Amino acid sequence: MVRGDITQPEILSADLTRLVEKGDRSQNILLASGDMVYVPRSGFGDIKLFYDRVRPLLELVLWPARVVIDWNSAADITGVK
After folding, report:
1. Closest Cα to residue 12, out of 1, 21, 28?
2. Dist CA 7 CA 17 (whole Å)
3. Low-confidence stretches of the chain (pLDDT beneath 70)
4. Long-range contacts at 15-23 (CB < 8 A, ≥ 24 apart)
5. What distance in Å separates the CA atoms of residue 76 and residue 70, rounded to the nearest whole number?
6. What phi and psi, each to the nearest 5 degrees, are found at residue 17?
């Protein structure tokens, strides 16, 4: 967390694991107006980034199957085959 004036910032860090799992209240930092909190990327963030990059390819591959499913669904609704 960064607090204070940009020319002389105060940098504080907290260990969420120690706070939550071990009950270390020294890690419970009270936030103030203007504080900037930085949360490092987790493994889930990396998975989402990978998915966002692969999704267009997956949609291209799956698109023909969706067309067939939609066509069959429309035929079932209208009775036209």
Report:
1. 1
2. 31
3. 79-81
4. none
5. 10
6. -60, -45
